[in-house]
Amino acid sequence: MSRPRPEPVQVIKQRRDSALRALTQGIPYVSFLGISFDRRGDELTAVLRFDEKLIGNPFLPAIHGGVTSAFLETAAIVELSWSILWEEMEHGGLDPKAVDAANLPQLPKTIDFTVDYLRPGLPRDAYARARLNRSGRRYASVHVEAWQDNRSRLFAQATGHFLMPEKTPGGHG
Amino acid sequence: MTADKARIARQFIEAIPHAKALGMRIEHVGDGEAIIAMDYDPRFIGDPATGVIHGGAVSALMDTASGAAVMSHPVAPAITATIDLRIDYMRPATPGRRIIARAECYEMTRTVAFVRVTATDEGGARPFATAAGAFTVERGPADSGDKGDRRAEPAGTPA
């Protein structure tokens, strides 16, 4: 008995990257803020590129608390959607080509979101990673950490609860 | 005195680049209360399937209104920064409608300001989101001094 040959690496990468692109680039507000996502396997890092329009205190200057909150919430929602998409793409037989801007998976809805502001957001790029503490059929609890220069010096963290999208028969819920 | 605080708070909010980027407009500010509105804009959509505005844009609006409420409080600090903000989303905002945030700084201790804020879409009877937050209180140069908060003293000085 011989195993089937694994898919060529570039085929796998192309599939995963295009699914991630469809997921994130389809959200206008994510583009408006200038958020992108780096992927290593299934691990995502959200990147917020600094821009003048993100400033909330022109005198320090520092990033607006609302931007920080939006960045963390985006990182949480994308992580959650990505985990659903990944599962369906890698094990559920979902055709990644079907995941395009016009046919995006339904996004989870935020129930509540609590942000701790630990330090001022400096006028430079910021990074965030989300962790699914619980991802059930109906509800999910997600924790997010954000940092700038040093991974161990967080400038904000957040916990949010989300309503999972309903599974549609035959489709990607 | 109170009118001055309201004017300083207004000047401060109007100088915030992100408030401008989101097109926030101050409807009222004074005595620990602030009302700030934001027009519907397709660039702020968070769910392309429904056209609903992203929660992040709503938090930016509510955070700004909260900060303005703190700064306009009769015993307002010169400086304030958000310690934490918890937002509850009861339902999605109605696509196409202006969003109005109403914030009230209901308690001010020597060190912490407590704020409640709601977000309602125009014409809506009840808020679609509410939030509660705690903010730092720094009483300016006469007090313990700057600790590197996110909001510094407003540049505008009373004429």
TrEMBL record, chain A:
Source superkingdom: Bacteria
Coiled-coil regions listed in the entry: none
Residues in Acyl-CoA thioesterase-like N-terminal HotDog domain copies: 62-160
A matching Pfam family: 4HBT_3
InterPro entries: HotDog_dom_sf (IPR029069), TesB_ACOT8-like_N (IPR049449)
UniProt-recorded name of the protein: Thioesterase
UniProtKB/TrEMBL annotation, chain B:
Record domain Thioesterase: where: 51-125
Region Disordered: start-end pairs: 135-159
Compositionally biased tracts (Basic and acidic residues): 140-153
GO molecular function: 1,4-dihydroxy-2-naphthoyl-CoA thioesterase activity
Taxonomy, superkingdom: Bacteria
Pfam families: 4HBT
UniProt key word Transferase: no
Gene3D superfamilies: Hotdog Thioesterase
One GO cellular component, as annotated: cytosol
InterPro entries, per the entry: HotDog_dom_sf, PAAI_dom, Thioestr_dom
Keywords: Hydrolase
NCBIfam families: unchar_dom_1
Record's protein name: Thioesterase
Species per Swiss-Prot/TrEMBL record: Allgaiera indica
